[in-house]
Amino acid sequence: MATRILTALVLIPLVLAGIFHLSDLGVLAVIVVLAFLAGLEWAELIHIGRGGRIAFALLGAGLTGVLSGLEPQMIAAAALVWWGLVAAELPVFLAQTDSPVYRAPDALAGLVTLAPALALLGGLVTESPWAAVTLLAAIWAGDSGAYVIGSACGRHRLAPNISPGKTWEGLIGGGLLGGAAGGALAWLAPGLASLPVLAGLGVLVVVIGQVGDLFESMVKRRAGRKDSGRWLPGHGGILDRIDSLTAAVPVYTFCLRGIGL
């Protein structure tokens, strides 16, 4: 836990500095690099060979760059369809389906999961830094709330066949804390949206983010892994930090565009 907290104390200021001070080109470069690293982890989880991992990661990074130049609302709408399909798969997950026959579908799933979300995240940062901060604050608060409340009083498992440690109590607690974080950002950035809107979005992204979290847990369980990588001490890999965001960013973007932000 000490390592986890120390890593967060280093990362959070760096992330905030990047959001508010990087140029648009700098943001794009960071997002593409992030897509490459996440792609390497995904390729390893689905057991692609070493040379193939680099090719897959380059493909994911390139696709992220291409999508960054397209209309965000269109990308978000397409991503929502994908996450609807993922949500439908969660209750029927089978851990024993890690077979070479699934290699191509799993690779495609990785591209569809990572590239749209990272492209949209980069768009949020360049168009409205405070909107990006609100999203990240809600997700971070939600993750912390789910962990603390789930550990303290979690009794009813959320998805025991995928992630036995997650509970409904943790989800509710995380959602409430995410809503509180979203509401707090309404005070820091009063021109973004009203307190009820940002608080509601905070709850929504935490709940939807759990779909992304559980989906990555599915991939890791099939691979027999606890963490996706070792880039971040105490946290695991890049995928372990952005799993919730992959599902939350499209929903958040779609909602913001819907209310004219």
Describe the structure concisely.
The protein has nine helices and two strands.
Count of runs of 4 or more consecutive helical residues: 9
Shape: globular
Q: How would you state the average pLDDT, rounded?
A: 87
Helicity range of the residues? over 70%
CA distance, first residue to last residue: 37 Å
Beta strand %: under 5%
* Element pattern in H and E: HHHHHHEEHHH
Spatial arrangement of strands, main beta sheet: 1-2
Oligomeric grouping of the chains: single chain
Number of strands: 2
Class from helix and strand fractions: mainly alpha
Uncertain ranges: none
Largest sheet, in brief, is:
2 strands, antiparallel
Number of domains: 1
Based on CA atoms alone, the radius of gyration comes out at 17 Å
